[in-house]
Specification:
five-stranded mixed sheet; 2 domains; 6% helix; 16 strands; mainly beta; six-stranded antiparallel sheet; 265 residues
Length: 265
């Protein structure tokens, strides 16, 4: 009896489904003690090579990722003010929270931050917040309603001790007990975003609508066919996330049946 040895050999020559390195943006870096060095590790998703942006307005600037490599993404920003806490931080997270850009008054047009050509199919934004006096809330929205407006009731974070990054879980609109030094916007897939920053809220003032920094963090979405390849990655290469390679039309995976040595004769 001829015996056959059947094996599945899965080839993933197109690449890896590993999560891409994040992109970090540090505003207000021209202020004293607000500049992050390339080796400083900061952020909720710890990373180095933050992009330091100086000035109340600027761009477009090409953004490097956490490896220091230029990404496809660019940023332009237009605000009324670049300012800072005026103290030296004891750690990089404190440095990240030292400087900011802001809208000066409710009567002004909102400040804007425009991101283009974001290289991730699915991602989250981490937005960092700090200030130098109480009740300086910021209402953050997106020009094309990519996410619901979020009222950030800012925590008056001390940077003269080690900073604990604390997430504001819900918008403070109607609940001024909500506060933190960062919040997260999830379920984003747009290549281009324009963030609008306004002073707002019953606990806010007419003087500030400020943010200190942004992280853009890729999110890998699912594995519908159970082949070990992330759906986001498969889709980015034009593959079918529902095809696990167990058929001849197999999206980069090869189903291979190897005959035994006797059968080859």
């Amino acid at each position: 009896m001829n015996r056959h040895v059947t094996s599945l050999l899965i080839f993933t020559a197109l690449g890896s489904s590993a999560q891409a390195t994040p992109i970090g943006i540090n505003f207000g870096s021209g202020r004293p003690d607000a500049f992050l060095s390339d080796t400083d590790t900061a952020g909720v998703v710890p990373q180095t090579n933050w992009n330091n942006l100086d000035g109340a307005a600027g761009g477009p600037v090409t953004l490097n990722d956490a490896s220091g490599t230029a990404s496809s993404a660019t940023i332009s920003w237009n605000a009324d003010e670049q300012w800072s806490l005026g103290d030296a931080a004891v750690d990089p997270n404190g440095t990240l929270l030292t400087g900011w850009i802001a809208t000066q008054a409710l009567t002004d047009p909102p400040s804007s931050v425009t991101l283009t050509d974001i290289p991730f199919a699915n991602y989250e934004l981490y937005i960092y917040l700090a200030h130098d006096r109480a009740t300086e809330d910021v209402l953050i929205s997106e020009e094309r309603s990519a996410f619901p407006p979020f009222l950030a009731h800012e925590d008056d974070t001390s940077i003269t001790t080690q900073v604990v990054l604390t997430q504001q879980m819900l918008t403070a609109d109607g609940d001024i007990t909500q506060q933190g030094n960062y919040f997260k916007i999830t379920n984003l897939s747009q290549a281009n975003l324009t963030l609008l920053l306004d002073p707002a809220g019953s606990a806010g003032t007419a003087e500030r609508g400020a943010i200190n920094g942004i992280q853009i963090v890729e999110v890998l979405i699912g594995d519908a066919d159970g082949d070990g390849l992330n759906d986001t990655w498969e889709a980015s290469f034009g593959l079918d996330p529902t095809d696990n390679g167990l058929n001849p039309n197999n999206n980069g995976c090869l189903l291979y049946t190897s005959p035994s040595p006797r059968d080859r004769g």
